[in-house]
Amino acid sequence: MIKKLSLIFGSKSKAQEILLLLQNAKTVVRHGFTDQELPRIERFCKEQDLHLVKSNFKVLFADEGVYSNKGLRIAEDDPRPGMYFVYISKDEQKAWLASYYEMMQNHQDLGLVLGYPKCCVDFFCKNFNSQNTNLELNSMNPYTNLSKREQDLVILSHFPCNAECQESVKLGEKYLQAIYMVDKERARELLTQLRVK
Predict the structure, then answer these.
(1) Partners of 87 in the beta sheet?
(2) Which of 23, 114, 124, 161 gives the lowest tally of CB atoms within 10 Å of its CB?
């Protein structure tokens, strides 16, 4: 299932988030997509009766690599190629709220509407800035380990406030269980690869 969805969404991690949405483990997800990727994402959402809201700006990513936490907002009509943020939900209001909070740069309410634990949202708001864009912590816990996200191996989509954050671990367990119900192979791969030996 994840492999099939990754052909549409471009990575296993993005596909996983959509699966969690379809399985009701998440209520809204946020991802970046290029102009070229958007038509197939929009088609999928329409077929699945999901609400999609596209940001009214683009982002030029400043970091090299698959994942970037640092970007420059540019106008939608700027000719430079960038990514749009897309907010997808079964609940139209939640998709619009996520889009609105992002546009207003209200990280607190955006994090909460995306379902991140309050302690982690607070941690992000206090620590994230243009000089400190990677809040990834060293973690021995497979549920909070973000160290392999560039290899498309990650369970959470937020920065945990600490490696043993109970709320994050609970979410990770819930997400892994939802993935396991549909794609046992992916669930095993995540648990095996994210365990620090």
Answers:
(1) 30, 53
(2) 23
